[in-house]
Design a protein that fits this description.
By secondary structure, the protein is an alpha+beta fold. The protein has three domains: 75 residues, Winged helix-like DNA-binding domain superfamily/Winged helix DNA-binding domain (Arc Repressor Mutant, subunit A, Orthogonal Bundle), CATH 1.10.10; 153 residues, Beta-Lactamase (2-Layer Sandwich); 96 residues, Enolase-like, N-terminal domain (Enolase-like, domain 1), CATH 3.30.390.10. It is built from twelve helices and ten strands. A hairpin with an 8-residue loop joins strand 1 and strand 2. The relative contact order is 0.13.
Length: 345
């Protein structure tokens, strides 16, 4: 059974966390005693703080300083004491403006817009995973030769979204060869989602090699490279915002964090955990399971296409974040992105 604080201790913990989130400085018993609505003596508050410290909800970073929340304190606050604020109409409008500005363009543009909106409205880092490939359907593919053994692949996916990708090939291809490649692929694979299409291409390429069907083998090799080169895992915006927070400003820590964001593997594993979870998920400090995020919190929510989870978006920031503001921001951005993608799929 989870540990439960009495009303007085819970209210003081809530006040301490709100003050610390606002100011970023340890909070003393004297400061709490002077707060509006607190009718307790400094001695009583010191006793309550000592109990909270003993049970691991707060700690003192320095001998004579005030106290700051611990990971356990934040978790208790989020699970028990937090009442998320209704999203401000102005914030909701700004989310809509970000997405409306790219409505009718590609899903990649919508994902980028959502990531930018999260970053700007949270002043932290916004992350959006790209829609899962089993939800993206190929309508048509065309190839155009470029110079220096490069080929421009033009994909029409979903209803009418156009994606252009440049790949490097092992030799120059003529217009007629590339036209034949496109006809073969469109005849065999148009209407399939990109995930099953890539698996089918690999299987067909192996069969083709066994049957020494040179033309089809070359077409499969080129198309497989197109799909491989098009794999982008997530879009990150506002990573440099994290440098503004004192607790993350250590250069070594920042370097490790940016390294992890660039490598993507750890963050993707974390976001994958959220694909099967409904609603907003919150990972505080070490709860993420990744040391590089020990001083961070990650707030995520899934977004949908036609009732199916298509991906996950979220905000990365310090554990000292305004959860009551960030949670509804993430939830509303997920809703708006789902609505925006509905028109494209």
């Amino acid at each position: 059974m989870p540990f439960s604080l009495d009303v007085r201790a819970a209210e003081l913990l809530k006040l301490l966390i709100k003050r610390y989130v606002r100011d970023g400085q340890p909070v003393s018993s004297r400061m709490l005693a002077r707060a509006e609505g607190v009718n307790l003596s400094p001695a009583t508050i010191r006793n309550v703080m000592a109990d909270l410290d003993e049970h691991g909800f707060v700690c003192s970073p320095h001998t004579s300083a005030g106290r700051v929340p611990t990971q356990r304190g934040y978790r208790y606050f989020v699970d028990t004491l937090l009442a998320p604020e209704p999203l401000d109409d102005d914030v909701r409008q700004r989310i809509e403006e970000h997405l409306l500005a790219v409505r009718g363009r590609s899903s990649a543009d919508l994902v980028q817009a959502a990531s930018t909106a999260l970053s700007r409205l949270s002043d932290m880092a916004g992350v959006v995973t790209v829609p899962r490939r089993n939800l993206i359907t190929l309508r048509r593919i065309e190839f155009l030769p470029l110079s220096d053994q490069r080929v421009l692949a033009i994909l029409v996916v979903n209803r009418s979204e156009v994606q252009n990708r440049i790949i490097h090939t092992d030799r120059e291809y003529s217009v007629s060869e590339l036209t034949q490649f496109a006809k073969l692929i469109n005849r065999r694979f148009a209407g399939r989602d990109l995930l099953s299409l890539r698996d089918a291409l690999r299987g067909d390429a192996l069969d083709t090699q066994a049957r020494v069907h040179q033309l089809l083998g070359q077409a499969m090799a080129v198309a497989e490279q197109v799909l491989h080169r098009g794999e982008e895992d997530y879009v990150l915006a506002g990573g440099t915002n994290l440098m503004a927070f004192q607790e993350l400003a250590d250069m070594q820590r920042l370097r490790q964090l940016f390294d992890a964001l660039d490598r993507k593997r750890d963050l993707l594993n974390l976001f994958d955990q959220c694909l099967s979870a409904a609603g907003v998920q919150i990972f505080i400090g070490q709860e993420s399971g990744y040391k590089v995020l020990d001083e961070c919190s990650v707030v995520t929510a899934p977004y949908y296409v036609e009732g199916e989870v298509a991906g996950v978006l979220g905000v990365i920031g310090p554990t000292r974040m305004a959860y009551d503001r960030i949670i509804p921001l993430v939830a509303e951005t997920a809703r708006a992105l789902s609505a925006g993608l509905k028109a494209d799929f």
